[in-house]
Amino acid sequence: MVYGKLAEADLSALQHQAQQQPQRLKFLIEQAAQLPAFPADARVPENEVHGCEAKVWLLSYWQDGRLELQLDSASRVVKGLLALIYQALHHASVDQVANFDLDALLQALGLQDLVSVSRRNGLRAVVAAIKP
Fold first, then answer.
1. pLDDT tens track for 74-128
2. How far is CA 18 from CA 60, 118, 127, in A?
3. Residue 6 CB: number of other CB atoms within 10 A?
4. 102 closest CA partner among 121, 124, 130, 122
5. In the chain, what's the furthest Cα-to-Cα distance?
6. Whole-model pTM?
7. Taking the CB of residue 35, how many other CB atoms lie within 10 A of it?
8. Domains, the chain, ordered by start
9. Which of 115, 131, 99, 107 is CA-nearest to residue 54?
């Protein structure tokens, strides 16, 4: 499945939320608020993902065949986009992570035109750093 571990019902709920928002940026900021807290002491250069417009930090490891994931950004909009990646990939299987398609998720949520090419490239760098 190209949406990571998101089931069709999860994807439908996110689509509904994104479409109900008068402004899609507000939707992303709301998603950012739902992202679990990132450890302050982990905001170090070796956990920073390069290639992103805003600073992005990533911690990931595999436990019992499932991805454990923590993400953070200094930008609320980027953090909202990271929250979507988190929802799709946290606790996902190796196959779900390997088959995840960021562009398909953004398109399914109607956010593809909101994300600039440079921001999308940064998000792709995050996904590449996560993939096995």
1. 999 999 999 999 999 999 999 999 999 999 999 888 888 778 888 899 999 999 9
2. 27, 22, 21
3. 22
4. 124
5. 41
6. 0.84
7. 20
8. 8-130 (3.90.1010.10)
9. 115
